[in-house]
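Team,

Forwarding the record for the chain on the shared tracking sheet. I've put the sequence and predicted structure together so nobody has to dig through attachments.
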Amino acid sequence: MLVVLVVVGSLVSSAFLTVNNLTGIGQQISALGVVVVGESLILLIGGMDLSLESTYGLAPMVAAWLILPVSSFGNGMQLNPCLGLLILILVGAVIGLVNGLLIVKGRLNGFIVTLGVTIVLAGLQNGIVKAQTLFQLPTAFGYLGSAYVGRVPVSLIVAALIFVGVGLFLRYHRTGRAIYAVGGNPAAARAAGIKVDRIRIGVYVAGSVLAAIGGLMESGRVSAVTGQQGYGEGIIFSVFAAAVIGGVSLKGGRGNMVGAATGVILLGLVQNILDLANVSNYWIEAIDGVVILLALVLARVIGGEATAE
């Protein structure tokens, strides 16, 4: 599918294979990619977290609200941006911890818990700023999403490092291998001495922190934090689509970061080609859905039934 899209893109527009366009794609998909890493980790343990899209919006909203003056719709505390970034990480970690405790220790249904948390966080995101957009973000706060090293976006570099780092962690670290074991067979993992509950809660925390970092990237890219960021944009659909296209199993225990990265790249290429072709926004979602289905059909043909699942 990636090869086909590259060929189609080069035919649609001569600008497709230019450095500026390719780096632009990289910057646009970086934030989504970081959230996909978080969701993929949660899928690997056999869970799912719908609330990542709201964490993606709420965490940067809270941090920016505490940093900005009242004139920019902040609360007037005007905290140091570095402290604001620590608060952003803390917000993500707390949300993940709450989800993990409710699901693992409270034994509540993960889908329903994270759906409820999604709606609560979305309400908080709009409520604390009365649905206003926070703008005039400090340079330090927007650096991750807007800065460049030469012609390469910093966000793309960081996203790539996160994919590589998590991929190596899953492959070579004992805890990484334990994540696969927990997702494949929790009872067998527990019998082997793996602390299953601790692993699962830790993964929910890590996933939410990554979603918060992704939200920071996006707010830096657009130089604002809007009430629509995350939940209002419905990014969770793209997150799941990228993970599934990349071969991360919804049943847990199977998938890797290389596959997840290819899923993110595929969605980014589709969006860019549609933009270059001046396709009406009314058709973009339908075309995205068709591409996802085609990718799954190809997975079934090439990789067999297990891959298609």
